[in-house]
Design brief:
Blueprint: H1 3-9, H2 12-18, E1 27-32, H3 38-51, E2 55-58, H4 72-79, E3 84-87, H5 93-102, E4 109-115, E5 127-132, E6 140-141, H6 142-149, E7 173-174, H7 186-194, H8 217-223, E8 227-232, E9 240-242, E10 245-246, H9 258-263, E11 271-276, H10 286-295, H11 298-307, H12 315-327
Helix pairs in contact: 1-2, 3-11, 4-5
Length: 340
């Protein structure tokens, strides 16, 4: 929305941050930034300002967590009083509902603009499937992963069903059930939205009572050879290991390491996303198109590399985001790139 509307629609402190008098003649757009992305978003803002003179972006502070109920700025984007939002996780179900209520039932355009970190927990690190170091299971594919953690369909609940014949009859003990009970964790939501073939509701997760949550699930795996959990790759502990993951049955499993995450070959890597609303005709604000194109340019990705906290996008994801930006549309499910 245009600068003249910002002062009328935003709270005073936010309007002041987004519409300083010195910028009154510029096409200014205001957005939401989660805490862990503050330094990178600031460098992107400055790079965009240096690249052209007609437009600018601003981010009101303080930065908050990536959920609308916890961050007033993200809540402003969901209600339509901010122009864009950076996000380090998928929008929670409640946030999707809020956005849809204020935007005619639609969803925002979601563009990957950077890779996550590969080993820093809480910095959009890849999802890791974790087992005890004594577990002989060599790897999993995504279909097996769904069958282990989601109820219904091809349920897998014993280790021999995964080919571990030496453990015939032993049950698979899930750790971290609290991560998908009630409001899902960022990693649980990622699996449900982008990995599971069946769009499961929260009830579609396999019940795992008394199995803890993501604050202690890795500790539980370290103490129990028959346990399995998922977490961020930066949260592994002694006594545990992350399984290689195959993108589909019959494909070669991919070891989660820096190279496989940076190249996009590891199928559980996550991204830093830019969310943009559409107008009543389904169009994206031209200023935000220019900003998104800058983030996806060589210059924008060089800023990611220089910051070092996150990884630049692999080329497949970058091409996808540019195509979706041109179309003004993004699919609900993340599509595979390398390792298909």
């Amino acid at each position: 929305m245009w600068l003249v509307l910002l002062s009328a629609l935003l709270p005073g402190s936010v309007a002041a941050a987004c519409a300083p008098a010195a910028e009154a003649a510029r096409q200014l757009r205001c957005g939401s930034v989660p805490v862990v992305l503050g330094a990178l978003a600031g460098a992107w803002r400055d790079g965009f300002a240096a690249a052209q003179r007609e437009a600018a972006v601003a981010y009101p502070q303080p930065y908050g967590p990536p959920q609308g109920r916890l961050d007033p700025q993200l809540a402003g984007f969901l209600r339509g009083t901010l122009d864009f939002a950076f996000l380090t996780r998928d929008l929670a179900e409640a946030d999707l509902a809020t956005f849809g209520h204020h935007h005619g039932g639609g969803e925002p355009l979601r563009l990957a603009v950077a890779g996550g970190s590969w080993d820093r927990f809480g910095h959009v690190d890849p999802v890791a499937v974790v087992v005890h170091v004594s577990n002989p299971l060599p790897s999993l594919d995504l279909a097996q992963l769904e069958a282990v953690f989601a109820e219904g369909g091809a349920d897998i609940s014993r280790w021999e069903q995964l080919g571990v014949q030496a453990w015939s009859g032993r049950p698979i003990r899930l750790a971290g059930g609290g991560a998908w009970q009630a409001e899902e964790s960022a990693r649980a939501l990622f699996l449900r939205r982008h990995v599971f073939a069946r769009p499961a509701s929260a009830r579609g997760w396999r019940a795992a009572p008394d199995s803890g949550d993501e604050s202690d699930n890795v500790q539980r795996v370290a103490a129990d050879p028959q346990a399995i959990a998922f977490t961020g790759l930066g949260h592994l502990l002694p006594g545990t290991r992350a399984l290689p993951i195959a993108p589909h049955p019959g494909a070669a499993p991919v070891v989660p390491d820096r190279e496989s995450v940076a190249s996009g070959r590891y199928p559980l890597a996550r991204t830093v996303d830019l969310l943009l609303p559409r107008d009543a005709r389904g169009r994206i604000d031209p200023v935000m198109v220019r900003f998104a194109a800058f983030l996806l340019s060589d210059a924008g990705q060089a800023i990611v590399a220089a910051q070092e906290a996150f990884l630049p996008l692999d080329e497949c994801r970058r091409r996808q985001s540019l195509a979706w930006l041109a179309a003004g549309w993004s699919p609900q499910r993340q599509t595979q790139c390398a390792g298909e």
